[in-house]
UniProtKB/TrEMBL annotation:
InterPro entries xrefs: ZNF598/HEL2 (IPR044288), Znf_RING (IPR001841)
GO biological process, one term: protein ubiquitination
Record keywords: Metal-binding, Zinc, Zinc-finger
Domain RING-type: 5-45
Domain of life: Eukaryota
GO molecular function, one term: zinc ion binding
Protein name: RING-type domain-containing protein
Organism ancestry: Eukaryota, Viridiplantae, Streptophyta, Embryophyta, Tracheophyta
Annotated PANTHER family: OS01G0251200 PROTEIN, ZINC FINGER PROTEIN 598
Length: 255
């Protein structure tokens, strides 16, 4: 077994596996898949895994449970017997700290408050109060970030970037505008870290940005017009027009 996660390529410290027994994916990626995408399939063999077990990766000595159905049935959130159960993802843990870390990743919380709380004096009332701030909805979190910290999440990334809420990037207003237009804000990182991201593509007619080219193409197909005859004649080339009148005018000129 390699010592890197088959999905994110990060060092494989914790693994999570289902009935199929594949232990090549880290617990964070498995949890993200199950919580964010609501996908309970194994990343490698696509076997449906109603429950998975997360444990420390120790090579050949990694703890293995051959029959996951032997784990307590209909468990509630928290400790059950020798293990801890995360109900939202149906993941079992054999380590309390790892369970709490994953549970925190799935929570809607302010990373700014939690970060400042962790840096404060241990046990202080202010740090505890900040750390306990919880939000029922993402809209509540966005309002808090704006009012308390003057920070914003990119709504396009929030919808299209399939990561935990705590992994979404936070921007000042100028940084957010730069992120959307050119993708090279300070928050977005270096050119290598951006991996070719150069801002969200924009509809030239509506002047509205979209998460990626796929979303932009869907919008153009649904909201604007193209000539299917030209597409056939020019090998599938897509030339879009704002509306039917513009399409008609263009073809009259070409006639």
């Amino acid at each position: 077994m390699d010592d890197a996660c088959a999905v994110c390529a990060e060092r494989l410290e914790w693994v999570a596996y289902g009935a199929c027994g594949h232990r090549e994916v880290c617990s964070a990626c498995v949890t993200r898949l199950r919580f964010v995408l609501r996908d309970q399939r194994c990343c490698l063999c696509m076997t449906h895994c109603p429950a998975v077990f997360a444990t420390k990766e120790t090579g050949d000595r990694t703890k293995a449970i051959g029959d996951l159905s032997a784990l307590p049935a209909a468990a509630g959130e928290g400790k059950t017997g020798d293990y801890w159960y995360h109900e939202a993802t149906q993941v079992w843990f054999d380590d309390a700290d790892h369970y709490r870390m994953v549970r925190a990743m799935c929570r809607i919380s302010c990373t700014v408050c939690e970060s400042s709380g962790n840096k404060g004096k241990k046990g202080s009332k202010s740090s505890k109060a900040k750390h306990k701030i919880k939000f029922e909805t993402i809209e509540q979190l966005k309002a808090h970030l704006s009012n308390k910290h003057c920070l914003y999440m990119c709504d396009l990334c929030l919808d299209g970037r399939k990561v935990f809420i705590c992994e979404q990037k936070l921007y000042t207003r100028p940084q957010l505008n730069q992120h959307i237009k050119t993708g090279d804000s300070e928050v977005d990182g270096s050119e290598v870290e951006r991996r070719g991201f150069a801002g969200h593509p924009m509809c030239k007619f509506c002047k509205s940005p979209f998460y990626g080219e796929t979303e932009l193409d869907t919008h153009l197909t649904r909201e604007h017009y193209s000539c299917h005859i030209c597409q056939r004649q020019h090998g599938g080339q897509d030339d879009y027009f704002r509306n039917y009148d513009d399409l008609e005018v263009c073809h009259i000129k070409l006639a």
